[in-house]
Design goal:
single chain, 473 residues, alpha/beta, two-stranded antiparallel ribbon, 11 helices, 37% helix, disordered N terminus
């Protein structure tokens, strides 16, 4: 009986003990039961937030890559010029300062494609503007030297589009582009200056318009109102902010602005480019993705470059390298020249001023450019635009057909005894009276006498402009 009772008690005690165990286990958590669930919910929320962030970053990276690839693919690569230049590599000047960059900028006035709205496409190509941009190795200065299209130059034998070759000739400079495109122009410039061209960029009318519109216009200053139907230009007097189409008319106009000469037109182009550089730097375009994209879009969709500049990264790196250059050190000038003795509607180089300028750029030496009207420039090599002021004893000009490059420099051409075979373009004769009058008496500073030679330490002084000059100064 005792055993039964014990067994009975034991049997009854076991569930009680189990109940007690369960009760002891349940007594741990708080009464509201929220302790374990809250950390689980918090970790679950963090996991979703991390996943969402990763998806956003992935989408942003994918979008950025898509934009990059789109812009990069729009750049046109000029492989034909690269092949032609390799053929003549042995005759080309050698680089002197490897970190310096010399870039030939060609403004094409082709009317093909979308450029047809500017006139009938006659199947020819011409370089409306040619600028040799020298970027110093230390990236502390940049000098843009304009080469007049009317300048008489030694043009080597060049390959035509049909595969035939021309004979070497002494002709109008911009005929080199019409004959053999960028390759012929580059070889002509190298022969003239002894400067190795590292890269080239070709910009057409539409591309110029797009780039001006991408920076929301560029400010200029007009001394009087302009109404030029041929240039599609109608502007008021004073400060004006020009859009792309207005800007194109402004830099190309010959009859309604100035004296109608190519000299005045190049000065206007230089002032405009200076204002453009100043706006890009002051507005922080290169550091602001929202402002940078339309500029890159405009540039990549309208530029033709050599293989060394045919990627978005190459162009951006080049542009960023210019960001730190002070605006007063972004200088513009025209190669020293004067009316050609055989035809006042054409130009010839003024020596030794031109050779001195070429040597300084080739050797990456300083060139001082004094804004026009800023006072007399003094010092060796004072040359203005290479034109002598009335009554000023200037540097001796080059005889017709004389070598254009600096004496002894690489690529210096030999003596030439050919006459000018170029017939020229009709519109280039516009303003010939202005060229005859202002060409000989142009930009040379009165009282400035050229030194017989420039030392390695000297900085030749020329007149021109820079990006810091105000538009109405």
């Amino acid at each position: 009986m005792d055993t039964d009772v014990t067994d009975s008690a034991g049997t009854l005690a076991e569930p009680e003990a189990r109940a007690g165990d369960e009760g002891a286990g349940d007594s741990g958590p708080p009464a509201d039961g929220g302790g374990p669930a809250r950390p689980r919910r918090r970790w679950r929320w963090l996991r979703w937030a991390a996943l969402a962030t990763a998806l956003v970053l992935l989408a942003a990276a994918g979008t950025a890559w898509w934009f990059y690839r789109q812009l990069d693919a729009e750049i046109t690569t000029d492989t034909t010029t690269a092949v032609e230049l390799r053929t003549y590599e042995r005759e080309r000047p050698r680089p002197v300062v490897h970190d310096a960059r010399n870039i030939l900028v060609l403004g094409s006035d082709t009317r093909s494609g979308e450029n047809g709205k500017y006139g009938r496409d006659d199947g020819t190509r011409r370089a409306d503007t040619t600028i040799l941009l020298h970027i110093a190795a230390d990236r502390r200065s940049a000098t843009a030297m304009s080469l007049p299209r009317d300048l008489m130059a030694e043009i080597p034998s060049c390959r035509r589009d049909d595969g035939s070759r021309t004979t070497a000739q002494f002709a109008q400079f911009n005929s080199a582009f019409a004959i053999g495109g960028a390759a012929c122009t580059i070889r002509t410039v190298e022969k003239m200056t002894g400067i190795r061209i590292d890269h080239h960029v070709i910009v057409d009318f539409l591309g110029f318009e797009k780039m001006v519109d991408a920076v929301d216009g560029v400010e200029v200053c007009l001394p009087r109102p302009v109404d030029d139907r041929e240039a599609r230009l109608r502007l008021d007097e004073g400060k004006q902010t020009l859009n792309g189409e207005e800007a194109l008319g402004y830099v190309r106009a010959r009859k309604s602005l100035g004296d109608g000469s190519d000299t005045e037109r190049m000065e206007r182009q230089q002032q405009f480019l200076g204002s453009l550089v100043k706006k890009v730097q002051s507005n922080g375009v290169l550091l602001n993705p929202t402002r940078l994209y339309p500029v890159l879009k405009a540039a990549t969709s309208s530029l033709t470059t050599d293989p060394g500049l045919d990627s978005l990264k190459d162009l951006y790196d080049l542009t960023r390298s210019l960001q730190g250059i002070p605006t007063e050190k972004v200088q513009f000038l025209t190669v020293p020249r004067q009316p050609w003795v055989a035809d006042i509607n054409r130009d010839e180089l003024v020596q030794p001023d031109a050779g001195r300028l070429f040597r300084q750029l080739r050797d990456d030496k300083p060139v001082t450019v004094v804004p026009r009207g800023a006072g007399d420039a003094t010092g060796p090599g004072t040359g203005g635009d290479g034109q002598n002021a009335p009554g000023t004893p200037g540097a001796p000009s080059a005889a017709p057909g004389a070598p254009s490059a600096a004496p002894g420099g690489p690529g210096t051409p030999g003596p030439v005894d050919r006459a000018d075979p170029a017939g020229g373009e009709g519109e280039q004769n516009a303003g010939s009276a202005g060229k005859a009058e202002s060409g000989r008496g142009g930009e040379r500073n009165p009282g400035a006498s050229p030194a017989p030679s420039a030392s390695a330490e000297s900085s030749p002084t020329f007149t021109g402009t820079n990006a810091a000059v105000g538009v109405c100064e």
